[in-house]
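G., the chain you wanted modeled:
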Amino acid sequence: MERLQNDSGWRGSPDVWLEAAYASLLESGVDSVRILPLAKKLTLSRTSFYWFFKDREELLGALVARWRDKNTGNLVRRSEAYAETVAEAMLNVFDCWIDPALFDAKFEFAIRSWALQSAETLAEVQEADQLRISALTKMLHRFGEDEARADVRARTVYLVQIGYISMQSQEDLAVRMKRIPEYVEIFTGRSPENRELDRFYSRHGYVPG
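Predicted structure as tokens:
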């Protein structure tokens, strides 16, 4: 991304302003995402913001797009990833719950909190929910579940995870990893094979104790 500079110094870049907005959203909510406080935090002039964004609304829109592309995009892609069994397919999705590089739970919580005071953001969240549930339903249907059962299983998977996020549940990685095989069996009706679990654990640098 091009960074601009003039006689008075560095103006930043779109990514710099967006990253500052993201940090403020997570720390203090959407009301804290304002141009002057961000400029002070970045030690940049307020006017430098306008080299990259038309106004605050455009910055907020970029935040929503970042959330949508990361959290919804990666969940859908993991649901479509190659798998030999439905259990392995579910483990592919579970990558999102373990790896914040794929699915940012804190960002998810912040966006959902914002949606409580913004009809526009609420509509974005509701659309994302439907896209994610649809992706999980298609994944389960791909492995032989009928449409009704695939829908219910998909909703169970998704709503449990959103519950984790909404409750800000904190779970030690080792504890969660020990629960993974049971979650997979409950959500799919099939226990994961040891080789499937080994691949999953290896992806996340976990060694069963």
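Residues 1-8 have pLDDT under 50 and may be disordered.

Shout if anything looks off.
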